[in-house]
């Protein structure tokens, strides 16, 4: 079994680091990034399954980063996380492709549950992509 890879993106370094340790203790390959630019670099260099990102960050905010992730890495599932989220921001994130939304602070068990749901969604999307590619290839023959 391969280890699921999770990227935590949050400008609060202590929050990102402590949650990464908790996820690592639960068997995930957990990485951190403190801003959008660093997150995109990690995503470009690693096979990340799920990204958990804060909505409010200096520079590139979570909604902008979500949009960029979905454009460049469409199979990466994204969970939005915020301590100051509004209903409108949550809806916007979900419309743009986020798997789910959590309020900070959250229990690690809640975060793990959302990550597991996102991993299941990713598996389904990967399978769908393989099926469509095989169908296209068969049609081209």
From TrEMBL:
Instruction: List each coiled-coil range.
Output: none
Q: Which GO terms describe its biological process?
A: phosphorelay signal transduction system
Q: Which residues carry this modification: 4-aspartylphosphate?
A: 54
Q: SMART domains attached here?
A: REC
Could you list this entry's UniProt keywords, alphabetically sorted: Phosphoprotein, Two-component regulatory system
Q: Does the keyword Cytoplasm apply?
A: no
Native organism is Desulfosudis oleivorans (strain DSM 6200 / JCM 39069 / Hxd3) (Desulfococcus oleovorans)
Name the record gives this protein = Response regulator receiver protein
- Domain (Response regulatory) spans 5-119
């Amino acid at each position: 079994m391969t280890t699921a890879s999770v990227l935590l993106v949050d400008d609060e370094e202590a929050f990102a680091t402590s949650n990464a340790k908790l996820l690592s203790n639960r068997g995930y390959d957990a990485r951190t990034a403190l801003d959008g630019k660093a997150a995109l670099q990690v995503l470009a260099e690693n096979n990340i399954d799920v990204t958990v990102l804060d909505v409010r960050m200096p520079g590139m905010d979570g909604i902008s980063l979500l949009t960029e992730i979905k454009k460049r890495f469409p199979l990466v599932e994204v969970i939005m996380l915020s301590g100051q989220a509004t209903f409108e921001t949550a809806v916007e994130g979900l419309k743009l492709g986020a798997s789910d939304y959590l309020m900070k602070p959250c229990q690690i068990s809640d975060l793990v549950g959302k990550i597991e749901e996102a991993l299941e969604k990713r598996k389904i999307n990967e399978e769908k992509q393989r099926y469509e590619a095989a169908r296209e290839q068969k049609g081209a023959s």
